[in-house]
Amino acid sequence: MPAPPVRNFCIVAHIDHGKSTLSDRLLEATGTVDPRDMSAQLLDSMALEREKGITIKARAVRMQHTARDGQQYKLHLIDTPGHVDFSYEVSRSLAAAEGALLVVDAAEGIQAQTLANVYLALEQDLALVPVINKIDLDVARPEAVAAELADVVGFSHDEMLYVSAKTGQGIEELLQAIVERIPPPRGEQSEPLRALIFDSEYDPYKGVIAHVRVVDGEVAGRAQLRLNAADRRFEAMEVGSFSPGLRALPQLTAGDVGYVATGLKEVGDVRVGDTMTMAGRQRPEPLPGYREPKAMVFAGLYPANSVDYQDLSDALDKLRLSDSSIIYQAESSAALGFGFRMGFLGLLHMEIVQERLEREYGLELVFTAPSVEYEVETTDGGVERIENPSLLPAPPRIAEIREPWVQIHVITPQQFVGAVMEAVTSRRGRFERMEYLQRSGVSGNGGGGDEQIRVLLEYAIPLSEILTDFYDDLKSRTHGYASLDYTLTGYQPAKLVKLDLLINGEPVDALSAIVHADRAASDGRRLADRLRRLIPRQLFDVPIQAAVGGRIVARETVRAMRKNVTAKCYGGDITRKRKLLQRQAEGKKRLKRVGNVEIPQEAFLAVLQIGKD
Question: Which CATH class is domain 6-181?
Answer without folding.
Answer: alpha beta
